[in-house]
Each structure stands twice: as C-alpha cells, then as structure tokens.
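Consortium newsletter contribution from the modelling node. Members have asked for a concrete example of what our holo predictions look like. Here is one, prepared for the adenosine-5'-triphosphate complex that several groups have been discussing at recent meetings.
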Amino acid sequence: MTLALSSCTYSYRPWSPPVLNRLNYSLAPGLTILLGPNGAGKSTLLRLAAAVTYPRSGTVTYQGIPSHKKVYRAAVAWMPQQITSMSGLTAREQVAYTGWLKGMNKRDAWESAAQALSRVDLSAQADIKTKRLSGGQLRRVGVASALVHNARVLLLDEPTAGMDPKQRRIFRDILATLADEVQVLLSTHDVADLAEECDQVTVLDAGRIIFTGDTQAFLAHAPAGTAPGRAAEAAYSVLSDTGAHL
Ligand SMILES: Nc1ncnc2c1ncn2[C@@H]1O[C@H](COP(=O)(O)OP(=O)(O)OP(=O)(O)O)[C@@H](O)[C@H]1O
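And here is the predicted structure:
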C-alpha cells in the first residue's frame, strides 16, 4: 500500500466546478514526474497528497492512513513552488527550524538538518545565510527542509522552474539518489530534462489522468523515427493531443 487518492473530488469553492473529479491515483515507488499543461490540476493533486487541503469527497491515504491523521503528515513532505529564505538564518538553521516546527526537539532537528543538507549536497553551504544562496541552492534547502523529519514520500511542486541547465542537472542527480530511499512525486514543465531519467510518468489534463506508467511505456508514445533526445517531448505532445480529445 502506498499513497493513494481514491475517487477524489476537489473544487476551490463549494459552488465552483471541480478541478479534480473522482480521481483515482496510486503513487508508484521511485521517482514519478507529474506532467500537464497550466491549470491541469498538478498543484492541486500535490496539495491534496500533502494534506495541505482535503478532498470534498473521496479519500487520500498513505498505507491506509487517512490524510487528516498526524502520522500521515509525518510520512509525507511537501515543497511548494516558492521557497522563502528566512531572514538572518543559515541553511542549517532554516532546515533545523523547519524540523522543530514539525515537532522534533532542538537537538534532533539540528542533527537531522545536517544530514538532510548532506543528502541534497549542500553541506558546504550549511553555514551560509539562505538569503545569499542561489535560487537553485535555495530549492535544495527546500528539499532538505522537506526531508528533515524523515518523510517517506516527497512531493515537489515544480522544483526545477527557473533553474539553469547546470542546476537542473545537479538537482536531477540528487533526486535520482533520493528516490532510492523515498518515493518522490514532482510536477514539472521540464519534460525533456526529467522524463527520461525518472521511473514513472503521470500526465494530468483538465483534472483527469490521461497517462500513468513507467518511463518506457511513456516514451513508447513518441512517433517512430523521433530524433534521440526528443522522445520525451514527442511522447508528451502525442499524449496531450490524445487527452484533448478524450
Ligand atoms: N486558490 C485557488 N482558488 C481558485 N481556483 C484555483 C486556486 N488555485 C488553483 N485554482 C484553479 O484550479 C485549477 C488547477 O490549478 P493548479 O494550480 O492545480 O494547476 P497546475 O496544473 O498546477 O497549473 P500550473 O502548471 O500553471 O502550475 C486551475 O483552473 C486554477 O485556476
């Protein structure tokens, strides 16, 4: 049993049309990327999975535990699109502070912050004030903050948006390593960068899942003769066109 959304319906206002309608989704092991056009519902799905909000009907569970339970929230970590640097805090202090907010005692949070920063390859920047870090490094502080309380599932909302190619490559390698230990679901528009590196791909369109499966099955949607290195974009384009007609 894993993180699962069962028949989930969600709308932002009681009277507005649902953004997700009776959605069923089970997160696979490893690294899954969540693709879809603007407004497809990716952030909404992640927010439900992160227990930031709750479905109007249906259930969200992790190993059968419903998302409103404290143990659920302890198992799942979420990184929103915007990471803020906390005024005056170093990277380690910011990550430790997040751990403390999540209920760890000060000493455990401090120790765990060092480990989390090492997992995102930021040990060398641990004592630097977060406001002096680059945008890509600050995102890695965000991932470390998400990891500090030893979550089993990591939910990342467009973590690579605005990163330069080098930072994206570093970030991608870190995620690939992390995904050996925790389940990772991340939304992105960087199809070409990530789709060939991940284990699973899910494509959301207008609140419906139009594809979910392993990377090979996803790439198989690229038309024959697609140039090497373009397969992910081509597969996504074919699936998006199909989804638009469903
Ligand atoms: N706070 C909100 N209040 C009302 N409607 C919202 C709110 N947030 C999102 N929506 C609407 O819900 C739908 C899905 O939005 P969501 O942000 O989940 O999509 P997305 O796939 O993450 O988009 P993007 O790729 O642009 O980030 C959109 O129609 C959006 O306008």
